[in-house]
Amino acid sequence: MSRTLAIAICGSGGAGVVACGELLLRAWARAGGLGFLRKAFGPQIRGGESAALLRLGEDENYLPVPAMDLLLALDWNQFGRFEDELTLGPDSTVLCPDDAEVPSQVLASGAAVVPLPFAAAVAAAHPEGRSNMFALGLLGQLLGLDTAALQALAAARLAGKAAVYREATGACIAAGAEWPLALSVDAPARPGGEHWLLTGNQAAGYGALQAGVRFVAAYPITPASDVLEYLASALEAVGGQLVQAEDELAAVNMALGAAFGGADAFTATSGPGLALMSESLGLAVASETPLTVLNVMRGGPSTGIPTKSEQSDLDIALHGLHGDAPHLVLAALDIADCAFTTSWAVALARQLQAPALVLSDQFLGQSLAIVPAPALFRAPASAAAAEDDPGAYLRYRLTASGVSALALPGDPDRRYTADGLEHNERGAPSTAARDHAAQLDKRARKLTTLDPGPHWGEVEGEGELALVAFGSASAAARAAGAQLRAAATPCRVLSLRLLAPLPVAELAAALAGCRRVLVVEQNHSAQLWRHLRAALGDQPVPLGSFARPGPVPLDPAALAAALVEEAVHG
Amino acid sequence: MAEAVLRAKDYKSGLKPIWCPGCGHYAILNGLVKALAALGLDRDRVALVSGIGCSSRLPAYVDSYGFHGVHGRGLAVAQGLAVARPDLAVITLGGDGDGFSIGGNHFIHACRRNVDITYIVMDNEVYGMTKGQASPTTPLDWDHSKLTPHGPGIRPFKPAALALAAGAPWIARGYSGNPNQLAKLLTAAVEHRGFSFLHVLSQCITYCPEQTDWKAIVSERAEAPVSRADVAAQLFGAEDGFTTGLLYAEPRTPWPPPAPAASPDPRLEEAFLP
């Protein structure tokens, strides 16, 4: 059994817990370690609650777990808000200031509480010192990290700030590293090897760029803004452009305009923004304009819990468009896979001349992880070009694949008007029933004739029991599958990357021979379960549901138990 | 690819407009193709963009590239296109409802963003396509709509004043009843580098037959355009909305600056190495 160590650093928003956690993780990565950092915070920028939840391990496991081995509290303000997301037990250790009352639920957990004179130690280290950097030194000591390396990383983060802050930071880290702690932790081994350190949002932006995206329209929204911030600077290196729009209505339409002009166009948003964009996604379908929209899901509906994770936008992604509007919906399976899935989505949107929605979520998007270099989708060399026109140019020519040749402004003598009005093959507006039926059929064929290829999902394990999940729920499903297999209960786990068009034949084949199947997702109304039920019915086997709303991470043990229960009593 | 010298009619697609006989929009279509011919623009490099409404049907009537989108968002499409394809002449057009009501926020920000596009609002003070409801520019006592049987009761919008306040660097007003002036204004608007806002009083013969009286009200500005925003603010505050001509023009560099050249080796991976 590989060792893991779960560390929480918590404090008021603005206390610098995320900076502390990120520096610790970066140092751990440089030292050859594996792990990731999940951010848990409230909507307040300053003064709310904030926590950096690190899970260090010996393998590439990115499962969010609430149970903490070690909690370092910079202060106890607002700690109560983490009650469900950060749990302590008798084996946990708590490092905290000695001048504040420890919350009753911490004492009740049975955790070993180690009060430390944070304020005095920081003041002694440097007049401008901050306790988060003292904490970084303490944690570095516990993990056996090199103090000079931590100091160098912290100094790099403060590049451009006054020298006094870098001095203070270095002094506080040293004070923490040298503090006489009568405590040790069983730190995981560090396997080494070449790894990247990035968030899912960065991975998605990277995947978009590598797939050819050169135009991005942006309107800020939590938890998607950092995709756009990453792209703003990275686009400069590849000669692309980003426009900050006045709202999501403008963002999606700017992207459509750029795509009409031939640029691979992209925008990123979260549920409320996707709702605003959905009218124009219908326009993308009707005008056959390629476009990729990343939706980093958060708790909804409405403003909901904007800083925390949930998978509750599947319904709007699948069904939120008006009219009969065939489009693509994909979901990233894990943090690194945000790159692959986004790059595949851009390629599919381009291939099918249709909008592609990529679902990610706050956990995937904003967690910082040490991962193997992300894979990217590479279009096969044989990928068929759009069927070319033998005669006069018809933008919306009826073809077997549904895809017709796309002229770009500037192309000689292929002038046409892209239209959201129903149109004939030439693109001229038409209300004729015949044209409507023909164009509806044409657009539908783009999805029905799509060969999903090998990337529609991932299947592991075998046996008569199965779990089916999408997006970040896949990690919980895989962990539950591993627990069951460890208990000699064979189990299959299907992780879906392509949700529309749903690869029905592939899914049915993957589930063939199953006796019990549970559909796993982090939302309240079993959105994936309903989607699969609608497509599969009871074939090859009736589907059960395991749906839990966010923001508490799905619990693999509960999931494994539910599948066993389903198998015994279902 | 350069084309042989084209005449105005060569820029028409041949598709028959859906507009009512006597609609002011015909004059704008005719003026626009004259402007395109006068500028000698390559039809392959002209893109017309619009939203929804009677006027927004125009792109299909011009033999160029076109994008007929959803209600109110033509400006956004046009700006995305112009940023991605600075080699194109991007012209976006629509009505008063499309541009000032549902698309009003985009209007404000397009004015201040100053992307190199032309924006033509074909203002007939009414929603024609939905059969005659009051728009943001309808007089407050106009009681011809079942939706507002006592008149809208609220003051109409002043497009030129708003454009100025929002930062538009080029503002002109035309009238469908003065086609020669209109063609010249359209030519100047397309030629202007940066955001040019051409507000055209375009009569709706069907729902607002009283607009035939505009002929007696409009007056052509004789002086050169104002080039200072504070002076223009006084002008737009004092005038009745029927002064035609190029009213305001202030030299300003369009946005955005040209896209940076792509690095031959962008090394995107380096940002992610710990």
Task: Give structural attributes.
A: 570 residues, Pyruvate-ferredoxin Oxidoreductase, domain 3, Rossmann fold, eight-stranded mixed β-sheet, seven-stranded mixed β-sheet, B: 274 residues, alpha/beta, two-stranded antiparallel ribbon, 10 strands, 28% helix, 17% strand
Describe this structure in words.
- With 570 residues, chain A is of the alpha/beta class.
- Helix content of chain A is 37%, strand content 20%.
- Chain A has helices spanning 17-30, 104-108, 118-125, 131-143, 147-157, 163-178, 200-210, 225-238, 248-260, 271-287, 314-319, 337-352, 362-366, 433-448, 473-486, 504-511, 527-536, 556-569; strands at residues 4-12, 34-41, 49-57, 70-73, 93-97, 112-116, 196-199, 213-218, 241-244, 264-269, 291-297, 328-331, 355-361, 368-371, 417-419, 457-460, 465-470, 492-496, 498-500, 516-521, 543-547.
- In chain A, helix 4 (131-143) crosses helix 6 (163-178), helix 7 runs parallel beside helix 12 (337-352) and helix 15 crosses helix 18 (556-569).
- Chain A is globular and about 80 Å long.
- The two termini of chain A are 32 Å apart.
- Chain B has one domain (15-272): Rossmann fold (3-Layer(aba) Sandwich), CATH 3.40.50.970.
- Helices cover 28% and strands 17% of the residues of chain B.
- An eight-stranded mixed sheet of chain B has the order 2-1-3-4-8-7-10-9, sandwiched between helices. Chain B has a two-stranded antiparallel ribbon with strand order 5-6.
- In chain B, helix 3 (96-102) packs across helix 4 (104-113).
- Chain B is globular and about 70 Å long.
- The mean pLDDT of chain B is 96.
- The interface between A and B is large, with 64 and 52 residues.
- Strand 15 of chain A pairs parallel with strand 2 (65-68) of chain B, so a sheet runs across the interface.
